[in-house]
Write a structure and sequence with these properties.
Radius of gyration: 16 Å
Shape: globular
Helix content: over 70%
Number of strands: 0
Distance between the termini: 29 Å
Largest sheet: none
C-alpha cells in the first residue's frame, strides 16, 4: 500500500510537470492505474520471494493468487486516495498516517474486533485474513472491483466538472 501511495505521489508530480500531457483524456485513468500497478507488482514480487525464503507461505499457488488480488486491491485503493486528495502535499501528509492506521486496524499484530469495520477500508485487512481463510478471496475480488470501478467512474466525473 505504501508503495502504491508513493507511486501515486510520483504520478501526481509527473502530471503537474506535464509528463502525461500527450495522453488522451480517455486513457489517462488507465495510465495512472498502470503507474501504480507496476511498482506495487514489483514490491509484491519482492514480498513473495521474502515469504518463500522465510518459509511462511501457505502454498506457492495460493500465495500467488492472493498476492495478485492484493495488487489489484492496493492499486484501486491508492488510485482512489490520489483522487480524493487531489494535492501532492495532502497525500504526502496522509501517507504516514495511513501506515499507522493500517497497522492499528488491520490484524497485523492483533485482531481488534471493535475496529473491524475501519480495517475493511484497507487492502491489508483482506490479504492478512485471506492467508488463512479462503472465504476472503471473494471479498478481495469485490474490494478490487469496487475500488477500481469507483476510481474509473470518479476519474471520468472529476475531469468533466
Amino acid at each position: 500500500v505504501l508503495t502504491g501511495l508513493a507511486a501515486a505521489m510520483y504520478y501526481m508530480r509527473d502530471e503537474e510537470k506535464g509528463t502525461f500531457s500527450w495522453v488522451s483524456f480517455r486513457a489517462k485513468p488507465f495510465v495512472a492505474l498502470g503507474s501504480q500497478f507496476i511498482p506495487i507488482s514489483v514490491a509484491a514480487a519482492v514480498m513473495l520471494v521474502s515469504l518463500f525464503f522465510s518459509h511462511v507461505t501457505v502454498s506457492l499457488f495460493y500465495e500467488l493468487l492472493i498476492l495478485l488480488l492484493f495488487i489489484l486491491c492496493c492499486t484501486g485503493f491508492c488510485a482512489l486516495m490520489r483522487l480524493f486528495c487531489r494535492k501532492l502535499q495532502l497525500l504526502a501528509m496522509l501517507l504516514p498516517l495511513a501506515a499507522v492506521v493500517m497497522i492499528a486496524v488491520c490484524p497485523v499484530f492483533m485482531d481488534l474486533k471493535e475496529l473491524r469495520l475501519v480495517g475493511m477500508l484497507f487492502p491489508p485487512y483482506y490479504y492478512i485474513h485471506a492467508v488463512h481463510d479462503e472465504h476472503f478471496l471473494l471479498q478481495m475480488v469485490l474490494y478490487a472491483f469496487v475500488t477500481l470501478t469507483g476510481y474509473l467512474t470518479l476519474a471520468r466525473l472529476t475531469k468533466r466538472t
